[in-house]
User: Fold this.
Amino acid sequence: MTELIGRTRARGIETLSLDATDTRNALSRALVAGLTDALKQCGKDPGVRAIVLTHTGNTFCAGADLRDPPPAKALTGLLERIVKLRKPVVARVAGHVRAGGLGLLGACDIAVASDAATFAFTEVRIGVAPAVISLPLLPRVAPRALARYCLTGETFGATEAARIGLITQAAGDLDLDEALAPALDGLRRASPSALARTKELLTATVLEAFVEDAGEMNRLSASLFAQPDAREGMTAFLERRDPPWVL
Assistant:
């Protein structure tokens, strides 16, 4: 599992890189387990001030791996670990993000994306719903915009993602690392204990959603993936054709 997660460190910032380019960094059982374990290790390491979550290849995360999807509970646990981690997690996005990958962005404390990034809630197009990832996203993303993009599956860019609160900043004309530099410098200048306490305050509402709704969302996700529409939608996706409900 560890080979799916690249790890480097520079001045207290641990960079975790999703490195399953053959599957466009889709959330497989192994990738979810590997990232969960890496985050757990970072949380215990006093030498880590903050974590940057990034990727290799042109896709940050393609959503769930339809050939080897993780259990809903495992994905929920990963998102909750990011939110509860007593160290800031910063998403560095230089590629496409789909479906479950958007849940990773919602769980992160800061997210910066380049103009090469695109975003889409594609669940409805394969016959399911964004159940588990709604836990970190509903408290943070503009409700009207979230309704539109979850219902339609439309693709949108980094500027729109920043406008609706899905990410913190679109890098625009800046190099992505240049855009990230002020935030990382600020984290390096902050007291670790103060960072932990501040993050706790900022994520309280998001954690409430996990406490109150995680069980229901796990059950809903499992139920939806077992439905005929989901089986047909996933088959159509893997066969690169439209499902029968497309008009």
Remarks:
- The chain has one domain: 2-175.
- The longest strand covers residues 5-10.
